[in-house]
Queue: 3 jobs
Job 1
Amino acid sequence: MVNVSPKEGQSRTLTRAELMEMIWRAPAVSVAPNLGLSDVGLAKICRKHAIPRPGRGYWAKKAAGKPVPVAVLPPSPRPDLETIVINACRVPSVVAEVRSRESSEIEVVCRYEADPRNRIEVPEKVGRYHPIIGLSRATFKKRSHLDKYHRLYTPAEDVFEVSVSKIQLSRAFRIADTVLKALERRGWKLSVEGPHGCRTSLFGQAVALSIVETSKRIPYEPTPEERAQFERTGYRWYKTIDYQPTGRLRLCGDRHLNSSGVEVVDTAGKPLEERLNEFVVLLTRCAWQHRCDELESTAMHRPSARS
């Protein structure tokens, strides 16, 4: 592919099919500059226009000669999204610099978290809880409710967000306590503010933390009163579907105001307690990505200098 980057301000019109052909012919880091975009900007356009992109590992498998499936272009969400007008913009040097540092910084974090000496371990009993978790536990004892998934939660905002069944509550707080202490040891800042509870930040990017228990749908078992009413009237006024907590916990890092986030989940072969170092790596990647997005967005909305 010939790299001929358009000048800032130039526009180019493509159909969804044409853009899909381009991004499945070469990696986004090669295609984006030819359109005057960053790889993040190109990904946003693809999401908006419902254009599938190659998944992680696609290009490595293709380079190794392994068979890789190519997605099929779905119908356009709306007729006006069938055509794409791309306005080229110059990504500032500070964004390019941050992106160039990303891989090396992530590599350092990966090596550190992979070292057995740095393994994050959840204790069976906690001697002294982190102040944020201590406050959260006290708040749960005073103000907790059941949601429709039969999970306990508290409407308080100055706590670590937890939504789990009663039987999983102690475990969830032990994991949350361990995570916060591990993040502080690694230089992450912690705070409890706003409507999304506990947050951690790195590179100036705040990420809300939470632990949620997954649930499954089950048939609803009506009460004797509901059955009697149904037999009398012939109308079923009660729900037919209920929910049951599964015992599987999900540790999330999510900005809430942004669609992107990270999570690790209990699996049959690896409980959440054994995936905390992995979570730190994912959080670091997420913070880097948010930082680049923020710099790029600021650059795109900055007025161009007039000559």
Job 2
Amino acid sequence: MRLENYIKKDKEILDKLKTDCKPFLKELNKGGFLYRGTNKNFKDIEKMVPRTDRLPLGTDMDVHIFLDKLFKKKFGWKVRSEGVFVNPNVYETTQYGRPYFFFPIGKYKYVWSPDVNDLTIYIEDEMEDAWAEYHDEYGYEDEWDEEPEEDEPDEEKMMKRTVDSYISKGLINNKRNEMAFKCKSYYLVNINYEKLLEKEL
């Protein structure tokens, strides 16, 4: 009876993915899987509906809003607020919770950058490096005898340069960097089904 239940569950998962996620499976083309970390606990497969008003966990709100504005202008959607963030590297997702396989249902969009592993960390590092270089050169404001001729680091320009590096194609070429998906719903599948999915999808 237990074996029959396992076989029935395997078939249920495969039927859902092959029926509901055809566009994604076609683009994925056995090129590896994407993972999403979450603190929720699912035994097999779970259908999820993403939020469209996601708030930042570790990003300053002003930065979050400005990045959304830049992404909206380039791609037509607010990546920071509307995106479902995933990664082709399972270990990168464990910092957000338990990793699951990610499968967008139906039509979807995505963006990623060949240069950016994690957008929050990347932006913070860029800003910190720019300000450190500026202070190394000119010191701090309370040390100035006169204001430096050099302008302070332009944080908005840095963010624009980062967003300009993002693309909306080439999913199978991404082996290590964070991606953001826009979709109406998606499945999360327990990674215990790895062998089944590798064999059947």
Job 3
Amino acid sequence: MKRFQFPLDRVLRWRAGQAALEELKLEQLCDSLARLNQEKREVESQRSVSERDLLGQAWIQAAALQSLDRYRRHARDKIRDFEQQEKHAAAQMEEQRQRVIQARKNAELLERLKQKALEEWQAACDREQETLATELFLARRGREHRKTEFRIQKSESRSLRSPVSGPHSEF
């Protein structure tokens, strides 16, 4: 029997590649979200350090308080921007997760089809081998039976041709 060949193998490889590509895109979005989160924490940390440094002084000038207030507003606005970007990135990640799930399902469907086709091919191979083994057995058995019949006929024909030897054989 010929070797197993799945007709949709190229499609299976393409779908598996698509799933890997979608997973890579999801990973990039996760990295992007992590960077946004890190930048937001840095702004929050810098704001806290600035407040602590200024408010920890024994006396503070009004200009320094105004500057701190402007910095707080600027940091708050930056944090809001980061939070908006995080929400947007989280929504993109969810969409990408759905694409990854669908791409994996598509690849797994073809993989199951390939497995089923392989099992059917293996069963057909097994049946073919069983049929061949049965035919060989029957052919050998038939040959042995014919040899046995031939020997029996040969011995019978010899016994019919050979003169009977004994006390009454000479008349």
